[in-house]
Each structure stands twice: as structure tokens, then as C-alpha cells.
Write a structure and sequence with these properties.
The protein is α+β, with helices and mostly antiparallel strands. Helices cover 29% and strands 30% of the residues.
Length: 148
């Protein structure tokens, strides 16, 4: 059986289309490739965006920035020492863009200016860290991509 160049080209194009469609099918049917937004309430988040800008600029005006460090026990978050530790209230969000099930929200409870997040609570990888806190009715916001 002889195949001419037209038939060969049609076969190659057909196989290429089947190849591409198999990838599309796998992405939509396999739970491993979960498609979700970073925030489920993105419309509400958009309305509060100006407040985020104000809180971020307040955090940049501090004498010392918030720092995040890896330690043997987990992640250490160090707040500015000039703030009153007992008056700091807020939350720390660790968001994994790759898997919403690995997201973590921790309330801020300080005795000194440091907060340790145990390594048992986190999985190694890239996180979007969002620290949202307030002191004496002044809101602060710190955002950073962090690899644990």
C-alpha cells in the first residue's frame, strides 16, 4: 500500500489534533489539574482594594519592616519592635496558588515581636503570604511571595 504526500499530511494533521485534544480532555477531567481562583470572593476583594493600598503604605512607613525567616522549627515572622506587641491584632494568610487545600490562616497572638509557625502546619513550596494587622486602629498590610 502506497501513501502519497497528501494522505500523509492528512494523517499527521489528524494525529496532531488527537494529541492536542487528549491534553485538553485530561486537564478538564483530572482533579489533579484543579482550576480555581486565588480568591473565591474576588468582587468583594476588589471593592476593598483602596483600603489595601492605604494599609500597605502604612506598613512601608514603619521604622522596621516585617521579616519572614525559615528556622529549624518552622517559619518565624518578626514584627517591628517599636510596635506594642500586645495591641497587634490580625491574621496571617499563607496561600498556595497550586492547591487551595494547602492554604492556611493563622491569627496573630504575640507575647514578644515574634511569631513562630510550626513546620507541621506547612508544606514546602511557594506561598503568597499576606499579613493583615492593626495597632491602635491603624491598619497595616504586608504581602510577599515566600518559599518555605
Amino acid at each position: 500500500m502506497k501513501i502519497n504526500w497528501g494522505t500523509g499530511l492528512a494523517i499527521v494533521m489528524f494525529l496532531f489534533i488527537v494529541f492536542i485534544l487528549s491534553f485538553v480532555y485530561k486537564t478538564f477531567t483530572n482533579d489533579k489539574y484543579d482550576h480555581h481562583l486565588v480568591s473565591e470572593e474576588y468582587y468583594k476583594d476588589e471593592i476593598n482594594y483602596q483600603q489595601e493600598i492605604d494599609a500597605t503604605s502604612s506598613a512601608k512607613k514603619l521604622n522596621e519592616p516585617v521579616t519572614i525567616k525559615n528556622t529549624e522549627k518552622g517559619i518565624m515572622i518578626i514584627f517591628p519592635s517599636d510596635l506594642e506587641n500586645k495591641k497587634i491584632e490580625g491574621t496571617i494568610d499563607f496561600q498556595r496558588a497550586s492547591n487551595i487545600n494547602l492554604d492556611l490562616t493563622i491569627p496573630i497572638e504575640l507575647t514578644n515581636n515574634k511569631l513562630l509557625i510550626s513546620k507541621e502546619k506547612l508544606v514546602k513550596g511557594l506561598y503568597n503570604v499576606k499579613i493583615d494587622w492593626s495597632v491602635n486602629n491603624t491598619k497595616y498590610l504586608f504581602k510577599e511571595k515566600y518559599t518555605y
